[in-house]
Amino acid sequence: QVSRARSNRDLVCRMLAQMPSVRFEVPPGAFYLFFAIDGMVDSTATTLRIIDEAKVGFAPGATFGPGGEGHLRMCYLKDLGPLEEALGRFVDWMKKNKPV
């Protein structure tokens, strides 16, 4: 599980790093990534749009307190195929949409 988590973390970080509006710190452990999207002011509304439009689920940062607003959290401890597919759909969504 640890090696899969590291490998998936590296994949997620490589893909998100390609998007200039996404900011994050590489997590040293765990299997979640907390990331910000420039211009996002309502993480709950943005999360609901991403679920509806890209079919990808994230947790809104606001769920984790006021300091989490403007961020999303994703779990990357998934099988590689579905993870790559979800990341691809999210990247495509980001290219066409602006967060709320």
Provide a descriptive summary of the structure in words.
- Helix 1 runs parallel beside helix 3.
- The longest helix has 17 residues.
- The protein has 100 residues and is of the alpha+beta class.
- It is globular and about 35 Å long.
- A 4-stranded antiparallel beta sheet has the order 1-2-4-3.
- The chain contains 3 helices and 4 strands.
- The mean pLDDT is 96.
- Helices cover 45% and strands 16% of the residues.
Count of separate DSSP helical elements: 3
Major sheet: size, sense and barrel closure? Answer: 4 strands, antiparallel
Category by helix and strand content: alpha+beta
- Globally, the shape reads globular
- The ordered H/E elements are HEEHEEH
Write a concise keyword list for the protein shown above:
100 residues; 4-stranded antiparallel β-sheet
Could you write a compact summary of the structure shown?
The protein is an alpha+beta fold and 100 residues long. It is 45% helix and 16% strand.
Map the helices and strands.
Elements: H1 2-17, E1 22-24, E2 32-37, H2 43-54, E3 59-60, E4 71-75, H3 80-96
Antiparallel strand pairs: 1-2, 2-4, 3-4
Helix pairs in contact: 1-3
